[in-house]
UniProtKB/TrEMBL annotation:
Catalytic activity as recorded in UniProt: GTP + H2O = 7,8-dihydroneopterin 3'-triphosphate + formate + H(+)
Protein family per UniProt: Belongs to the GTP cyclohydrolase I family.
Gene3D superfamilies found in the cross-reference section: 1.10.286.10, 3.30.1130.10
Entry EC number(s): 3.5.4.16
Residues binding Zn(2+): 104, 107, 175
Protein name per its UniProtKB record: GTP cyclohydrolase 1
GO molecular function annotations of the record: GTP cyclohydrolase I activity
Pathway annotation from the record: Cofactor biosynthesis; 7,8-dihydroneopterin triphosphate biosynthesis; 7,8-dihydroneopterin triphosphate from GTP: step 1/1
Subunit note: Toroid-shaped homodecamer, composed of two pentamers of five dimers. Homopolymer.
Span of domain GTP cyclohydrolase I: 34-211
UniProt keyword annotations, A-Z: GTP-binding, Hydrolase, Metal-binding, Nucleotide-binding, One-carbon metabolism, Zinc
Amino acid sequence: MDGVVKSLSARLATANADKKPTQGVARPTREEAEAAVRTLIAWAGDDPDREGLVDTPRRVVKAYEELYGGYAQDPDAHLDRVFTEVGGYDDMVLLRDIPFFSHCEHHMVPFTGKAHIAYYPDGGVVGLSKLARVVDIFANRLQTQETLTAQILDAIDRRLQPRGAAVMIEASHMCMSMRGVQKQGSQTITTRFSGVFRDDPAEQARFFSMVRAGR
């Protein structure tokens, strides 16, 4: 195992010698990833070779493929198809209460919540399921809630070019509830606006009202 970990460190150092930060790092092999999990289990104080843990590294790496699958997906691809036959509809489109889970990039523990997305179409609309997929793609990466909010709105603006867009996220962070200050039940709310939502407070108020309607 030590040989695998040392090999990984040497390979990353070589790969990153002339690499710009924005290009990322070389991806470890599955064997190297499983060895890293074994190291963490041992560091935590347990025996990675005991019966209950011997297959844990393999399971963790497999789970990571799902939990961080957003890195392998392109959100823009899900917003490429715009439907123009909408009978001239040009009012707000709102998709609210989109559930998501993500992982804090500071502690790698989960945060979960709901996203609310609205936009004013300019010539066409996108399938509603595509908005939910965009949320999942960005959420299935190491994140902060603030960055997640901005990325969702920027993708909608970039691909749909609406007259305005709004994103609101409400989430609970386990890095606050299960460690640190240990404040259970607290929620974090983030928003970002563009176009008419950014420029007209009345549109922001309408968005908030529609998100809260029926609650």
